[in-house]
Write a structure and sequence with these properties.
2 copies of one chain form a homodimer. Chain A is mostly helical and 185 residues long. Chain A is built from 10 helices and no strands. In chain A, α1 packs across α2, α2 crosses α3 and α9 packs antiparallel against α10. Chain A binds a DNA duplex (30 and 30 nucleotides) through α3.
Chain lengths: 185, 185
DNA sequence: AATCCGTCTGACCGATCGGTCAGGTCCTGA
DNA sequence: TCAGGACCTGACCGATCGGTCAGACGGATT
């Protein structure tokens, strides 16, 4: 069986995942071919497809931890309203965006397309609830516009500053978000 | 010569341009094929390439007016600093983004890629100066982060709200931008 | 020695991409 | 009547895409 020392098994699976994360973050999901990833790893494209059923499976495995944190944030948001919802959304989403900068970068501009795939269908509803929370559950168009500005601004800014340390990015983002959001009346 | 009534010349050129604008705004530049555009117009792909040298020429002609306005804003920004630069950048960019929502939508996520092409090379420098103006020409990282948040947030929000009337979107955006920007010391 | 299995690969597939080209149609001016 | 040019098209091109498949290789089990 599996007794004895850990077999010197090649960790190709993890290497492919890491290389895909790096390439996706630079050239996006659609803009990165399986050939690109294979070249970065140093194996053939067929090897990539041996370890992952298809390109989308590669994306799913890469996004899974970020999605789990997003769902946890959505759960904490349930039942909150007004300023409390704004505060939870601000702290929670800024933290998420900073920690998963690479994952956010890879779906730049492809967010609407990728949401079509059934594997990410529920993300759309979560992001709608997140916008509502940023707006303090207000129906005023100006509140929703401000919410979308900060949501999109955080995501894009995190994707842009990939080298800055977390402890520098997080407080600056939190400060601008708290300033930008429309106070609930 | 060209005397007499305007010849009933088919305005295919304009129709292609309009259809391309619509398709690009929905599926992006890379995500829209010349076949898609031809189908939307009701002509062949070869006809599209008869009226436009190549796909990039179609994009250039579509972006030209927006780029002209952006360059005018950049010119107005020259020589300004501090709060004055912030105010000019805010009003100018919000107005630009609202007016050219469709053009902004079409380069969602493809902005970095498209900037590589020599035709749009100088746009990168302009956007850097725009970020600096939003930051009130401050070197503080938090000011630059706030500037990028509002810049990206405005662009993405405009691309998202394509149906809202200009007069509703513009003041709401201006309000959130003025709130969000870090005041110059 | 024979077998099995995890790992990996080159060759190949159909589809689609942006782009080219020869030629057809139709109007106009000489 | 004829030549010419603007307009348009189907057929085709090479490249690249995601994905499939039969089989090669090597170490462990029997």
């Amino acid at each position: 069986m599996l007794e004895g020392m850990a077999r010197a098994v090649p960790e190709t699976h993890g290497e492919i995942l890491a290389a895909a994360a790096r390439r996706f973050a630079v050239t996006g999901y659609k803009g990165t071919s399986l050939q690109d990833i294979a070249r970065a790893v140093g194996c053939s494209k067929a090897t990539v497809l041996y370890h992952f059923a298809n390109k989308e499976a590669l994306l799913s495995e890469l996004m899974a931890p970020a999605i789990a944190v997003l769902e946890a944030l959505d759960a904490r948001l349930a039942g909150t309203t007004g300023a409390a919802a704004q505060e939870i959304a601000a702290e929670g989403f800024v933290d998420l965006a900073v920690r998963f900068r690479r994952q956010i970068a890879l779906l730049r501009g492809e967010f609407p397309d990728l949401l079509q795939q059934p594997a990410f269908a529920h993300i759309q509803q979560i992001s709608e609830r997140l916008v509502a929370a940023f707006a303090g559950n207000s129906d005023r168009p100006s509140a929703r516009i401000a919410a979308l500005v900060v949501l999109a601004g955080i995501a894009e800014t995190c994707a842009e500053f990939i080298d800055i340390p977390d402890d520098e990015l997080r407080p600056a983002l939190l400060a601008v978000v708290r300033r930008a959001l429309e106070p609930v009346t």
